[in-house]
Amino acid sequence: MSDAGPPWDRLKELASRRRDVHARRLGEVTRERDEARRRLDLLVSYRSDYQGRLAQAGSRGIDRAGLQNYRAFLAQLERAIVQQEALLEGAEDNVQKARSLWAGERRRVDSFQALDERHLSGIARNEARREQKMADEWAARASALLAGSAGDADR
Questions:
Q1: Which residue has the higher pLDDT, 142 or 148?
Q2: pLDDT surpasses 80 at 12
Q3: Are 58 and 75 in contact (CB under 8 A)?
Q4: Can you tell me the distance from the alpha carbon of 19 to that of 121, in angstroms, rounded to the nearest whole number?
Q5: Fewer CB within 10 A of the end CB, N or C, for the chain?
Q6: CA 133 to chain centre
């Protein structure tokens, strides 16, 4: 075997790079999703606060123009919430897609790692066999030498 390593090393390196790219992308889309969720939560909170203001104004008495202004603003908030919910849904889809791509590349890298481990354990097994064979040969030679010198001593 050459020092270049197993033939799949280059493929493993490329898969590792792609996994890292997908991991960075997953981080980006996750941040975008979290920001979309934060904006939606803010809009919903603002709507709730504004509805409370409308209720207070209604209990104190409000003129027709003031009521129309409250209702118009609440309608705008509602449209913004619907738009933000759609953006959040798209962001969730992006996260799922990015997670799937990252997981696929991670599995590919893990497969190459398993090949490496099998390859290295095969090399270790072969080396152990070779060493055992050499030890057996040395033991056989030593035994033969001892047997031969024991026979010389008997003469």
A1: 142
A2: yes
A3: no
A4: 26
A5: C
A6: 45
* 16: nearest Cα among 119, 106, 116: 106
Report residue 152's pLDDT band, with 50, 70 and 90 as the boundaries: low
| Distance of alpha carbon 115 from alpha carbon 111, whole angstroms | 6
**Least confident span in 16-30, 82-96, 132-146:** 132-146
Query: The tokens of 80 are what?
Result: 């913004």
**Orientation angle between helical segments 9-60 and 64-154, nearest 10 degrees:** 150
What single DSSP character describes residue 4? T
- Note the pTM of the prediction, 2 decimals: 0.66
Q: How far apart are CA 71 and CA 57, in angstroms?
A: 12
Average pLDDT over the chain, rounded to an integer: 89
Are 15 and 105 in contact by the 8 Å Cβ rule? The answer is: yes
Task: Dump pLDDT digits (tens) for 97-146.
Answer: 999 999 999 998 888 888 888 888 888 888 989 999 999 899 888 888 88
For 112, which DSSP code? Answer: H
Interacting residues of 94 by C-beta distance below 8 A, sequence separation 6+: 29, 32, 33
| End-to-end C-alpha distance for the chain, whole angstroms | 52
Cα 96 to Cα 77: distance, rounded to the nearest angstrom: 28
